[in-house]
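Weekly puzzle thread! Below is a chain. First person to post its structure in token form gets bragging rights.
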Amino acid sequence: MQTTFAIIKPDAVAAKNTGKVIDRIEHEGFSIVGMKKIHMSQALAEQFYAVHSARPFFGELVSFMTSGPCVLLALRKENAIAAWRDLMGATDPAKAAPNTMRAVFGTNVGSNATHGSDAPETAQTELKLFFPELV
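Winning reply:
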């Protein structure tokens, strides 16, 4: 079993899609082993997205992630990282496969409903930041 980190982003929470996303996660066979709803501070968002700090969209990303509450999740399943990324779909909802989270709940590249760790090392870092009790 593998554990990955996921976020239901502020756009999906504001659109009242949290329950739909969680239902789909469970329907797809993931176990939710950690969950909390937070309103991310600017400092925490900057820390979380530090890998993108030199990119032109960094400020916009931080503003978006601090614009409202989000739901943080620790998801467990066989090959959880790849399975969650497949279920999320492409970063751009317009290019995401039909019925993926981003195709269904995202509106554009910036407001794309969900986040997921992209590798085991990233998952460990992200889980340690938000769910240290699980690492």
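Puzzle host: Confirmed. Bonus trivia for everyone else. Strands lie at 2-8, 31-38, 70-77, 114-116.
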